[in-house]
Amino acid sequence: MKIRRSNPEILRDAQTFCATGVLPVLEHGRDGHGTASVAASPRRATHGTATPGCTLIIALALVLAAGSATSCRENRAAAMPDPLARAYDSESDWSDSSKVIPLNYQQAQGKRVFYQYCVWCHADSTPAGPSNRSNLNPNPPLANDGATLNPLSDDFMRNVITMGGAATGKSAAMPPWGKTLSQDDIDAVMAFYRAIAQPPYQPPARPGPKYSVR
Amino acid sequence: MSAEEMGKVTKRLRWAFAVSSVVFLIVLAISPVRDYLSAWRRYERDYVRFAESRPDTKRLLADYHPEIDQIWIPQMQVVDRCTTCHQGITRPSLADASVPQPFRAHPPIPHRVRDWGCVVCHRGQGLATSVRDAHETTLAWEQPILPVRYIQASCGVCHRAELPQTPRLDRGRKLLTTLNCVGCHHLQGVERPSMLGPDLTNIGTKVSRAWIYKWLKDPRTLTASDGSVLTNGYVNEDEPRMPKFRLDEKELRAISGYLSTLSNDPLQPYKFDPRTVAAWEKRPDLIDQGETRFRQMFCTTCHSLSVTRGGETKLIGGDIGPELTKVGSKVSPEWLAAWLRNPQAYLPHAEMPRYQWSDQDLYVVTQYIESKLTDPSLLSDLPKFPAPAPDEVQLGRRLFAEKGCSSCHAIKGLAPQTDFGPDLASLGSKTLSQLEFGNSKITRTPVAYIEAKITDPHSVNVAARMPQYSLAPGDLDALTTVLLSMTGKSATPGMEGLILAAGHPQFRAGGAFGELYERYKCYVCHRFNGYGGTLAPDLTNEGSRAQKKWIAEFLKNPQTLRPTLTFRMPQFNMTDEEVSVLADYLSMAMQTPAVNLAGVDSQQLTPQMAGLGKQLYEVKYQCQSCHTIGSAGGYVGPNLTNVGNWINPAWAEEWLKNPQSLMTDAIEPHRDFTDEERTALTAYLMTLKQTRPAQGGGGAGRGR
């Protein structure tokens, strides 16, 4: 199903803004304000709107203003969106050090938990230097090992982290973290794993029609 | 007037009346039409259409009302209408990136959007009902919207205490202390420490005028070809705290001249016995021996040295003390020996411990530093400086105050300065009109102002007194974030804590222990009752954890730690008497009520229990994944080879119950052992004893 949009400019501005944090420069006047149904507020008082009792000239001016607000706006090239500029935190791509992966709030919390508890066995270098990964048999997967971890469902991963390897048919060397980490911490760590996975993690497709914007 | 004429007038009047009625109707219609066409109404209509395209339409439209949606938080003076357009902000099913804005759900955060609204964190104009008014950054709104990469600034407005969830803000707050911003600026919630830069009262006895000149010109001795400094592989972690001031040739000569004359009460040079020195001087291996002693004493736990491996130069070592790669070309030999013997005699605030030196050790280490940690070309590009003329000294003394040097450096007899720079306590809430941009080419936003000011102060104001810091891009972001968090608002009730307290010891030990505690500066690396460094383990509960005998042996020979650690306890060469004082105090006074040392009787731990414990350790719980016994096992936890001689059995039991209850940041997972399993594991651990404890032990250091 497609939506016909009465003023595509506004959406474009919003998208530009959301992508870059910058709005295109205002050139031709600004949008009208919502009026009638707005509850009284301190600011509204200074923005009085036209009433039918105005003179003909003011009425004509308002007609023009309403017209200009909804019509003439130049098309402007949207600024290049930089996801890193919007990111809460970032992590460099383990398999390609020239790339940096943006992280949202939850993934950033996962990064913090990961670097305290998980990094020792699920990475090849640790804040203290050497990694414990090579000491273990079987070798634990690297946190960014998408080929191994992407096929695992969220539920399975959550179970392995919460209840440990022995309870889920994996190596007993993976301890249960359910009493050490909160549910939020575990979800955050999983979000971090998904964010840094190489090849990138694709969430399972959702059913239902797709909404699109022309 | 005839009736005919009356009729004409009436007709004209009728026309006029008809036209004005139409105009009147149009005017009446304008308001509802404008309302209908307004941006927020369009978004609401779009949201309904969008919701209809989703499988969960009913839930998405359950509490939808076609009017302005408002979140009002009277206590924080927030009126927030963002959710009028951002309709899906609290709906988890719209979290997917394919959902178009403005309908996408907010990523999960600890605060409920409905309770806190949007502008508390994002700033911007919560009352506005058009896209531009709400989000505009270039106009002088009271609260311009915050770019998302600085969003953690808003967390810092209310949360003054340490906040692990905000890495960028946290880094920024750390930078405020390491860069000594508080030397010149008043900052919200940051206390001014007693000492910022070194006391320069006797600097003339320590370094030459040429070195001061060079240092003032560019306060870095180690730079890569691109000008960056690498420490432990991380760029700029060990940036010299002294920034680069803009000084011209005359000023450089005057200040270096003035400082080189400062030697009010010079350090008494240490006199080695000339006969012994004569004997040592004949030995060619002297310098090698010095290097060995330097390494054995673990000077690199606090000081770093530049090491070149595979063409890459890195600083290896700690950052508590200054980097020492070229220190031999910096300080005079007499000063060095006297300093090493008693640092506090030169600088009462010095954090360096007062080691027990034998004459031979002191001599060989001094020789090593003076001959190996040098750079012959360091001062070779400088002209020969004559003794400073009196007017130069006079000018230097004046400049020392005018340039703000005395904000960080004390000189006896010179009044210290505070608040040399502008007050930054409310910088984060300043509007555009309150900031001085001058003729600079900076984008006119408060955020761009802060960015420009800390990147290059002279890009904002060519006459700025602020020195030049060279910060990595990540650190610039961190510093901008923390400055934006200082909005001058008073702290939220219940969260009044300081961002950075100057640090007053809450632990004052008296007596013989107190003297040694001060002498060896235990608190620089270890924490005691919440005060002290974080490099080494917290010793608040050391008496409950470790056996007294082990503590004593460790103090005598602290080189018993894991070989993978870079940071190890220095060898202080303590006397037996000192060792017994420290061990007595630590084991008696530093205890926690959570561990009842009398509660576990090691006599009752039978070999059968230990056998079961070994099974559990090796098979069921696979503790060897993280712990080493002998030569096999993992590196994550401490080496358990000698744990039977090290840990108190009661501590082991309590630790197995819940590691985090004894040490909040313990990595060991909290597991569900039964009482029997716990006793068995303790029994097994207590059988692990090494006859020669010099090989095992462990447990100190980072990354435990």
Describe the overall structure.
The complex is a heterodimer of chains A (214) and B (704). With 214 residues, chain A is mainly alpha-helical. Chain A has 2 domains: 8-70, no CATH class; 83-196, Cytochrome c-like domain (Cytochrome Bc1 Complex, Chain D, domain 2), CATH 1.10.760. Chain A is built from 7 helices and 2 strands. In chain A, helix 4 packs across helix 7 (183-196) and helix 6 packs across helix 7 (183-196). The longest helix of chain A has 18 residues, at 105-122. Chain A is globular, with a radius of gyration of 26 Å. Chain B is mainly α and 704 residues long. Chain B folds into 5 domains: 39-145, no CATH class; 158-192 and 420-484, Cytochrome c-like domain (Cytochrome Bc1 Complex, Chain D, domain 2, Orthogonal Bundle), CATH 1.10.760; 203-372, Orthogonal Bundle (Cytochrome Bc1 Complex, Chain D, domain 2), CATH 1.10.760; 511-589, Cytochrome Bc1 Complex, Chain D, domain 2; 602-687, Orthogonal Bundle (Cytochrome Bc1 Complex, Chain D, domain 2), CATH 1.10.760.10. Chain B is built from 30 helices and 10 strands. In chain B, strands 1-2 form a two-stranded antiparallel sheet. In chain B, strand 7 and strand 8 form a beta hairpin. In chain B, helix 8 (167-178) crosses helix 20 and helix 26 crosses helix 30. The model of chain B is unreliable at 230-237 and 693-704 (pLDDT under 50).
